């Protein structure tokens, strides 16, 4: 039998494949234009937060390689590793034949990423620093992978969740908060940090919002001088529970502070707030609950 | 005893006291002198009390002890190795402490464990170097120096390995430890006691040290049992350094430069050089730590950054003037 291929059919086929694999152009967080001939099919994610966001947009199955500590959701743990976020295995990445690399601008070694870009692999730099940045990233990832619909859903759910929290706590009394990121050295964050934005959503005021550095090392004296109403922070170790984390014990002896006197020291699970992903809202919800607890105390 | 140098030593002592008071006065919150007086006499506002008694006094005392320990240890190492480039860390002691401390940080353990590990690591490294250098019986300063330097490079490689493979959020803590940081120094009582006891022990030995500094052969010819004295010096220097490292991480520069500085001002007699080094080392570190606390307050710098910035110009100036 002779296979008949009509011209209109060929045209239709061409049209269909081109619609499905339309060229993609998005601007990344470093301001560079990322151009893909077709939506990405083999993605390398160079940061745990990017892996998490890809899964949130329903494109987790496209990741062929990622970095250590990509531990959420559980399926992410099955993805082959290509090094740590700060130490990339260039050969391992090339061997996976990716058609898109998602890089973390402030975390990855730029020289190594630039090298990969120089080899012709498209690189998208991510640096979400705000709540709006998270939903923006979800939408961008949707465009890059051709999964716009699920990504849009995820982004809208995130925006709606943030809006809900904002509405609920907008009328509440403001609470002055010291947020402790790390114990030794003593590290906090300024007003431009995502966590600080989450705090203000709950009606919390970061006492060190005006510092210039994003995550500054500060003196204990400065905290005493600010005398915040609430002290919040994560544990030193992942999975360390609310049960007397080390940083909490350190504050106990400063009994003249109002936060210590009224025992308003709260533990925030670091895994929920340290990544700019949809899970950040869960962490924000916990911060809001603690602040409410402090108000009612 | 060179009594004519005692007035100079007295001036240094008064200067040290002044710097200690300065360290109490300055910080992210500036206190008036009356506040300190009233707190020290048992009164004062709760905030001032907390600032001075809980934070500044322990920290200033810890800084002074650390500086003093390092400077004396450095002076001893320079006598022991008869090498002007010797410092307390040259035999790999801080490297051993650092590896142990970073490993406990990697495991996520608290401040107490980090300090204990640092002390253990320092002693372990000391025994390792000692065993390798003296194990075969005969030894010399050169052999000890070489062993120490090579062991130190080994520790250095391990430190780089730990830094390269650890998580991002743990890095600031590790780097601060490596640069030297006094914000979590434990109770300074033991370091002070050790410093004073060791000084009291060494000053009567001063003549022997003076002879030894001129060379092992001359010392032996003059009837010094070189091996024994060297062992004692090595052990004491290691103990002093281990305690300093436990207090504040590896603070560089003080142990190398302060003894040289004091030699320019006080000459070569160890009986006056050692106490002078203790005072000057302590003062330098208190001054550096105070600056580290206030330069970009409320933000903090690691004290190690400031020590060198203060010490280098002073040292170069003195070196330049002593040459003319």
From TrEMBL, chain A:
<dbReference type="InterPro" id="IPR002491">
    <property type="entry name" value="ABC_transptr_periplasmic_BD"/>
</dbReference>
<feature type="domain" description="Fe/B12 periplasmic-binding">
    <location>
        <begin position="42"/>
        <end position="297"/>
    </location>
</feature>
<keyword id="KW-0732">Signal</keyword>
<protein>
    <submittedName>
        <fullName>Cobalamin-binding protein</fullName>
    </submittedName>
</protein>
<dbReference type="InterPro" id="IPR050902">
    <property type="entry name" value="ABC_Transporter_SBP"/>
</dbReference>
<dbReference type="InterPro" id="IPR054828">
    <property type="entry name" value="Vit_B12_bind_prot"/>
</dbReference>
<dbReference type="Pfam" id="PF01497">
    <property type="entry name" value="Peripla_BP_2"/>
</dbReference>
<feature type="signal peptide">
    <location>
        <begin position="1"/>
        <end position="22"/>
    </location>
</feature>
UniProtKB/TrEMBL annotation, chain B:
<feature type="transmembrane region" description="Helical">
    <location>
        <begin position="88"/>
        <end position="106"/>
    </location>
</feature>
<feature type="transmembrane region" description="Helical">
    <location>
        <begin position="273"/>
        <end position="295"/>
    </location>
</feature>
<feature type="transmembrane region" description="Helical">
    <location>
        <begin position="301"/>
        <end position="320"/>
    </location>
</feature>
<feature type="transmembrane region" description="Helical">
    <location>
        <begin position="144"/>
        <end position="165"/>
    </location>
</feature>
<keyword id="KW-1133">Transmembrane helix</keyword>
<feature type="transmembrane region" description="Helical">
    <location>
        <begin position="112"/>
        <end position="132"/>
    </location>
</feature>
<dbReference type="Pfam" id="PF01032">
    <property type="entry name" value="FecCD"/>
</dbReference>
<dbReference type="InterPro" id="IPR000522">
    <property type="entry name" value="ABC_transptr_permease_BtuC"/>
</dbReference>
<comment type="similarity">
    <text>Belongs to the binding-protein-dependent transport system permease family. FecCD subfamily.</text>
</comment>
<protein>
    <submittedName>
        <fullName>Iron ABC transporter</fullName>
    </submittedName>
</protein>
<feature type="transmembrane region" description="Helical">
    <location>
        <begin position="59"/>
        <end position="81"/>
    </location>
</feature>
<feature type="transmembrane region" description="Helical">
    <location>
        <begin position="185"/>
        <end position="204"/>
    </location>
</feature>
<keyword id="KW-0812">Transmembrane</keyword>
<dbReference type="InterPro" id="IPR037294">
    <property type="entry name" value="ABC_BtuC-like"/>
</dbReference>
<feature type="transmembrane region" description="Helical">
    <location>
        <begin position="233"/>
        <end position="261"/>
    </location>
</feature>
<keyword id="KW-1003">Cell membrane</keyword>
<keyword id="KW-0813">Transport</keyword>
<keyword id="KW-0472">Membrane</keyword>
